[in-house]
Amino acid sequence: MTDRPRPLSPHLQVYRWQIQMVTSILHRATGIALAVGTLLVVWGILALATSESAFETFKSCIGNPIGVILLVGWSWSLTFHLCNGIRHLVQDSGAGFQISQFVRSSWLAVIGSVVFLVVIWAYVLLVGGAA
Amino acid sequence: MTLRVGTDDVRGMLRDPMKHARGLGSAQAGVGHWWVQRLTAGALILLGGWFVITVLSLLHADYAMAHATVAKPWNALLLILFIVTAFWHAVLGLQVVLEDYVHTRWKEVAAMVAIKFVAVLAATAAVLAVLRIALGV
To answer: S-S: A49 plus which of A11, B13, B112, B129, CB 3.0-4.6 Å?
Structure first.
């Protein structure tokens, strides 16, 4: 089959930035990040099944400063994709399609994701981790 | 509803069979994709929550304790479900991203095949590892 040029819609540069655009773009970006992050989870499980030394290597990798930065990024990706995903599921039912509701639910997803992130890392800092 | 030109019903005639030959138009597989994406999303709300809480409960755990936690039947079951569902959801999502942004057909297909290979390999490896931990082999 030959590739025929398909019509394309005007892209980002012609639009004023709005919160709905931000949540839409972030949903994709965090989804891609989470797909990669799940590979890290697999690494952890494989290390746990392999040996104590393999698991210690895994723990020291995610425990160093770069690893912690990545973990913060992944955990925020998770909380945002979760909050915005729930928003999309609600919208799939046909609810919340007025522009004002759309804007409000977008902000709710952003703020909710930050709240969840803070709760998770506050717990980590308070309890303290061996990793 | 009928669509008439004179006395003839021309519905069938207006649908040009050339669209099938060219492979344009609906492949009829979109609804299944859409539903499974939502189904896995709903499952991941529960499984993701369980995963985060379980990881947080293991902050102080050493190797033996982490190993023993994963070995518990419920945890092993939920961890396997979490991994498989997460990769399934990821493949469906990445497929949409590729379809939107990769406009060269062979690159799109090659990327999709690569993503599926990696996802199946990683998910299978993780499932096998959890089973090894749970069964103590």
So the answer is: B129
Partner residue facing B90 (CB), from A38, A48, A128: A38
Domain segments of chain A as ranges: 19-127
Residue A38 and residue B122: Cβ atoms within 8 Å?
yes
Task: Classify B8 as helix, strand or coil.
Answer: strand
* Number of neighbouring beta carbons within 10 Å of residue B26: 8
Task: Name residues whose C-beta falls within 8 Å of residue B71's C-beta, 6 or more positions apart in sequence.
Answer: B133, B134, B136
Q: What is the ipTM of this complex?
A: 0.87
pLDDT in tens, A22-62: 999 999 999 999 999 999 999 999 999 999 999 999 999 99
Q: Which residues of A touch B70 (CB under 8 A)?
A: 45, 48
Q: Which residue has the tokens 């344009």?
A: B24
Write down the domain spans for chain B: 32-135
CATH class of A19-127: mainly alpha
pLDDT tens digits for B78-103? 999 999 999 999 999 999 999 999 99
Q: Is the Cα dihedral A66, A68, A72, A75 positive or negative?
A: positive
